[in-house]
Amino acid sequence: MPLQNRVDPFGEIKAVPQRGMLMGNRGGAIHDPETKTLLKRKWASKAWIICVCEFKGKKRELMGRNPQTGSAGWTELFFLDEVTALAAGHRPCFYCRRERATDFLGRHRAATGTQHSAPELDDILHSQRLATGAKPVEVDRLGLSMLPDGAMFSEGGADFAIRNGRALRWSFSGYGAPMAFDEFDADEMCIVTPAASIAVLAAGYAPVWHPSAGP
Questions:
Q1: I need a labelling partner for 67 at 20 to 30 A (CA). Which of 16, 130, 136, 177 fits?
Q2: Coil, helix or strand for 131?
Q3: What is the CA radius of gyration of the chain?
Q4: Are 60 and 104 in contact (CB under 8 A)?
Q5: SS3 195
Q6: How far apart are the first and last CA of the chain?
Q7: Residue 178: which residues within 8 A CB-CB, separation 6 or more?
Q8: pTM of the predicted structure, to 2 decimals
Q9: Diameter of the chain measured on Cα atoms
Q10: Predicted local distance difference test score (pLDDT) of residue 55
């Protein structure tokens, strides 16, 4: 039985076999190490980050205990790719992905004309995450064409990522074939990726894509 630690674009945490390319956490422990099940709370802080799955040869027991304190360690979450993680409201980690995190924060500052710190950006993202109660932003076909590569939207109960002027249907296993924007019903679409992350993508941040998205 898979652990409930796979994240979908809406930020919901599911139990599916597919692990994905990247790992992350939500600022601490949101699981019971005895049962390896999630607690009722779905985040421990506003710092939702995106990590690599391997870093300096370190090993962890998934949804286990902190070996130094014996208490629950931070809860490992997994994403198909960085596009999915950004949609869910996470941002790159300054510990294991410092270069990417610095780039992400720098592009946010350039896009907004601010000097926000990482914690301030976390506050902004937290107010925009669908998993924390933010309301979805509706979008029409014209709006789709204005979204940057890497932005995600939902239509008719399915999720899609934008790449090269086309929409790729998302699943925990990967992406489907590209679809033209005029194939969608304009009355049922909403943007999934937080506005702050869309601004970063529009400013040129290049997220890591799952290989199924193509070259």
A1: 16
A2: helix
A3: 17
A4: no
A5: helix
A6: 33
A7: 163, 164, 166, 167, 168, 214
A8: 0.96
A9: 55
A10: 84
Domain definitions of the chain by residue range: 6-131, 135-194
Contact of 42 with 131, CB cutoff 8 Å: yes
What is the b/e burial string over 45-69, where b = at least 16 CB atoms within 10 angstroms of the residue's CB? ebbbbbbbeeeeeeeeeebeeeeee
Which stretches of the chain drop beneath a pLDDT of 70? 186
Could you give the CA distance from residue 133 to residue 94 in angstroms, rounded to a whole number? Answer: 26
Answer yes or no: are the C-beta atoms of 111 and 199 closer than 8 Å.
Answer: yes
Q: Which two tokens stand for residue 99?
A: 């270069």
CA angle 107, 110, 114 (to 5 degrees): 115
Residue owning tokens 């300054």: 94
Backbone angles phi, psi at 175, to 5 degrees: -110, 150
- Written in H, E and C, the secondary structure of 4-43 is CCEECCCCCEECCCCCCCEEEECCCCCEECCCCEECCCCC
Alpha-carbon span 29 to 118, nearest angstrom: 20
